[in-house]
Write the structure tokens for this entry.
Amino acid sequence: MSHEPAAPPRTAGSGGPAGAAGLVARLRAVHLEMLDAVLSGDGLQRVATLAADAAGAPVAIVVPRLGTAVVTPGGVDTDAARDELRRYVADRVADRPSRVPERVAAEAPIASGDEIVGAVLLLGVASGSDAAEFLHVAAVASLTEVAVEEAREEVEENLRGSFLEDLRARPDLEGDEVVRRAARLGCDLASGAVALCAELTTDRPRHVVATIAEDAPGALAQHLDGRVYALLPGGGDPPEQVLGRARGLAERLRRHGVVGLSSYYSDPGELGRSIQEAELVLDVVRRSGAPIEQDIGTGTYRLLFRVLASHPEEVRSFYEDTVAPVVRYDDQYRTDLVGTLEAYLEHNCNMNATAAAIYAHRHTVAYRLERVRELTGLDPVLSEDRERLGLGLKAYRIIAPRLPR
């Protein structure tokens, strides 16, 4: 009697009901492990490790939205190789044509509906025939990680927004409360801060907020009411150093819109006023343009901004006592006494240089300066009066956006 050789036992991936049931059980077990890793905070690195163990080859998980690219051991050997994977998945997410890297043997998209947000990549030849199934399971777990991370970011955004809104609305918040609430958001304001306010011309406020966070670690930044607000902590550094960093950041952000900076406030209890000051600077820069922007962060202008943020009536009163009659005269008769006075002061009271700057005869300049004297009671020729007029012009420039039109 002859005996046929016994059929090999059916295992997961070898087909048949028993094999299918075994595969389903194994997929479920791995999936549960992956979800547990996500929910316990172990993140995508653990998910990738579980997928690599199940597939029998290195695995990478790349999610551009989270700035994440994790790779299990043996997957890539250089930073350039990791960057290649990042670029490839970024192209897939953006639906751009892209060449598949040689090391990628298989992949599963991480997708929310029709939107691809990342990919799970198999980096080598799998030891079994079911690798694709485990990549898919890892993609589902990775999507859960994306959801968890975005929910966490949304909560933090709401907390940041609430805190900055409170500072804007209640500039008298106690310093201890300001420090305590900021610390809960990972920001140390114990040594004070510089406030930033930007009105964007870009439709990418999240990108601007991310730029601030990258450039100024520990900063609080949030998009509110069409503007981006930020507090840039001092960190105990000298004021000029803190302001220098803030000015460098503002310069980089100007390609996205108009930016206003406050002076450095060392007292956390005054940071609400620092936000008001940054808003004032923004309004003035937006209205006045480059000439005032070049000097607005220094000297008398900065002092006036601080006074305006805390005692606006003082600056308005000084304006009324100096150049307000000249401004109103210009508005009524369409003259340019203010421009002539500014040019006269900028050119060190040189009549010929002033005339050349405003394209007028020197006698016209003299006549207009006489009208300034008659309207204000201050003589531009006299040193003491000239200083008051110069300060009055600066006060006018910073309160002009709030004057009735």
The longest strand covers residues 257-265. Strands lie at 59-63, 68-71, 106-112, 115-122, 193-200, 220-224, 227-233, 257-265. The mean pLDDT is 84. Residues 131-169 form the longest helix (39 residues).
